[in-house]
Specification:
Structural class: mainly alpha
Number of domains: 1
Strand content: under 5%
Length: 145
C-alpha cells in the first residue's frame, strides 16, 4: 500500500521538477526563485492526497449519507482550489509575471480566486452526490440480495 503511494509521490515530484525546469528555461529564473513555488505546489498535492485518501478510507469504513460525502468533498475541493491558486500566484510573482502592486488591490486577485473557490465546489457537489448515491444504491441492493 505504502509503496503505491510513494511511487505516486515520486512521479508527481519528478513531473513537477520537469515543469519547473521548463519554467526556468523559458523565463530565465534562478533556482532560488523557484524553490518556494516548487514547495507550494508539492504541499498542495500532498495535502490533497492526504485529505482525499483519508476521506476515502473513512467513507469505506463508515456509513455516511451521500449528501455528507458530497459536502465534505466539495469543502475539500474548495480548499484545494484555493491552495492551487495561491501556488500559481506565488510562482507568477517569483518569475516576474505578476507585480506585487497588482496583488495589493484585493479585487484584482481576490475576486477571481474567491469565485473559483466558490464555484468549483458546487460543480464538485453535483458529481460526487450522484456518484455517492449510485454507490449507496449498489451497496444496498447487494446487501439485500
Amino acid at each position: 500500500m505504502w509503496t503505491k503511494w510513494l511511487r505516486v509521490i515520486a512521479f508527481f515530484l519528478a513531473g513537477e521538477l520537469g515543469f519547473f525546469v521548463l519554467v526556468k528555461l523559458i523565463f530565465h529564473a534562478t533556482w532560488s526563485a523557484l524553490v518556494g513555488p516548487y514547495l507550494a505546489f508539492a504541499v498542495t498535492f500532498m495535502s490533497a492526497m492526504v485529505f482525499f485518501g483519508s476521506f476515502n478510507a473513512w467513507c469505506d469504513r463508515g456509513n455516511l449519507s451521500p449528501r455528507s460525502v458530497a459536502l465534505i468533498c466539495s469543502f475539500g475541493a474548495a480548499i484545494w482550489v484555493s491552495l492551487i491558486d495561491c501556488a500559481w500566484a506565488y510562482l507568477a510573482l517569483n518569475i516576474g509575471l505578476l507585480s506585487g502592486s497588482f496583488l495589493n488591490d484585493w479585487s484584482n486577485w481576490g475576486i477571481p480566486v474567491g469565485l473559483t473557490a466558490l464555484c468549483f465546489p458546487f460543480l464538485m457537489y453535483r458529481a460526487v452526490y450522484r456518484n455517492a448515491l449510485a454507490r449507496r444504491t449498489l451497496k444496498d441492493s447487494a446487501s439485500h440480495a
